[in-house]
Amino acid sequence: MVDRKITRNTDSLKKELSLPMVFCVALKQVVGGGVIALTGVAIGLTGAGVPFAYALAAMTSIMAGIPFAIMSSAMPVTGGTYTWPTRLISPLSGFLTLWFFFLTNVALSLYAITAANCIAVFYPGFPEWLRLPQTAMAFIILTAFYLLNMSGAKLTAKVGMVLTLIMASAILLFITTGLPAVQAENFSELLPNGFSGLISAAGILLFTTGGAAMVGELGGEMKNPGRDIPIAIIGATSIAAVAYILASSVAAGVLPISEVANKPLTLVAEHIMSRGQFLYFSIGAGIISILGIINTQMLWGSKSLLVACDDNWLPRKLASVNKRFGTPHYLLTILYLIGVLPIALNLSVKEISIASGITGVVAQVVIIVCCFVLYRNHKDIYDRGTFKVRSKPLLMTIIAIAFLLNCFLVIMMFISEASLMTAVLIGGWLVVGIVIAAIRRKGILENTIESAVPSP
Predict the structure, then answer these.
(1) Is the pTM of this model over 0.90?
(2) Rounded distance between C-alpha atoms, residue 53 and residue 45, angstroms
């Protein structure tokens, strides 16, 4: 049983995130630079049928997001990725899920390097003294967002809203400029590679349409998490789906399919936009999009670890929350170092990033299982949630589909991206987590499910 005399660091987090802030965080997680890079790849697989691939990927992401929305509504907590399996399955399963999930934060280094590379494209127009080495630029980017996040979740979320609006306006500019230039004859042949091409493209595009569920990590800092998280997850993914379908229609409909297949979206943008519009689109949908992802990942990336420290899996001192800003400054510093060290040591983060993507999806599978356990074993708590599926057959169908889709995604990632080194990294990371669990397990706090449920 939890010792009520122990003050938890999570209690010091400030509840100051509103629905618009949370919605922008979710939207930023869904809409990103992937639309620029992956739309052409999807066109290569589906031809003019790419809007159908985006629709299928978005519906799949919404289906997978429903269990997260249910969990967030019934059990709106900080660090749900850790807290839910800990309370519903077992403390050990929660810690190992967290351990897998935390590996995703190494992608911060990849995002910073990618943003630096995008900025370097504009170097010919910069004064010589501003043309910093890309490593230095990546370091400055991460440092800036680290300091921003240290200043509090509210300020971070406000900056995130601005970045999201710039990104969204850039994509909207592409859509409104391109739709009048769409040629109907380009859609004369849909799905030249048949159903298999559609499925393959949708599988790839899941990387762009997923991610909104990460707002479930921020429950302890929201004013009304039980209501806001489901709205953010389902709403942001739905809006992103419409934007992606329209943008991909422009991408496939302006130029001949043979010219845009496997090419970045900027090829079409340069054709339909003025120089000023193209510059805004490149910065807004490219650089700003990536910066927004860094910002949101630093915002939610430490939350599950914070709760695990409170439960004594790791030293509680690591989870100390700054009294002035309400931020876990030690954990944010750990996140910062995870992002900076690969850059400082000039390491390739490709394999680690692939491994982090796989482990992140594995964590999603565990949360889907938690939704099933919540309904089966704690129906009273399930019924308290404002967002729920009342029909048992429908709920079980959704959970089964979400579970199978995420398992399929893990398999696809292993087949298409993973190498022996990826498997070694995942295995090694798991071994380290098991060793920590073996050392710390006897001293953890055994919390009941009621500790993660708001009072009725």
Answers:
(1) no
(2) 9
